[in-house]
Amino acid sequence: MKIKHLQAFVVSCLIISCGNNATQPAPTGQPAMKGNTQVETAQLAQATSDTAKWINSFREFRDAVYQRKKEKVKPFIEFPIASHEIWYLVGDDSKTNVQTDESIPFTEKDFEKHYSKLFFKEFVNCLLKVKTEELYKSGKYQTPSIKDGTTTYVLYCTVDKTDNILTLNLNSNSRVDIGNGEYESGEGSTIYIFAILPNGKIKLKKLQMAG
Fold it and tell me: How far apart are CA 97 and CA 112, in angstroms?
């Protein structure tokens, strides 16, 4: 009988011990893995959601450029812009004639002075033809061509989702009369490169020219 009572006592102690271990909180300093995972997932979802807002920022930029409101356009530009080619676009000979291997910064003051040449009529007209929903879904869009005199313009929009870059490439193709019934074609590109920030805003960081 004593042996049976002893066995029952031992079994009871084991059950109580297991129950206590099941409800015992994690030691101080032990990471709560499930909670942390949920927080990280929420943060990642928020970051992804914010980055996806770039299309709204693009629409706001387009509206501001169309309305020609410098103060509204300015927040979409990261000053100074380090680009030597931008001076050729705005036609500032005082900068293009400088002999230097380094880019002359394009400042906020220069923006105020050369705004109309930076975002010129043909660029704006093509920009207005971008179907933003299609650009957002596919990551690329080509506008219908616009003809101005003997020059045809097309805007190519692309989004690099890996590097978070939005590129607006305005391509121009001209037919020039060189006399005697002969013509020459000339092609060029003005390329606006925007960074897509973590908060979904776009910022013009660089300008290139080709052709």
Answer: 21
End-to-end CA distance of the chain: 103
* 148 membership: H or E segment, kind and range: strand 146-148
For residue 202, give Cα distances in angstroms to 17, 29, 82, 149, 159: 60, 41, 17, 33, 11
Q: Give 1-21 pLDDT, tens digit per residue.
A: 444 444 444 444 444 444 444
Its pTM stands at 0.74
Q: Which residues make Cβ contacts (< 8 Å) with residue 14, sequence separation at least 6? A: none
Tens digits of residue pLDDT in 26-84: 444 444 444 554 544 444 444 455 667 999 999 999 999 999 999 999 999 999 999 88
Q: Are 175 and 185 in contact (CB under 8 A)?
A: yes
166 three-state secondary structure: strand
Torsion of CA 134, 136, 141, 147, to 10 degrees: 80
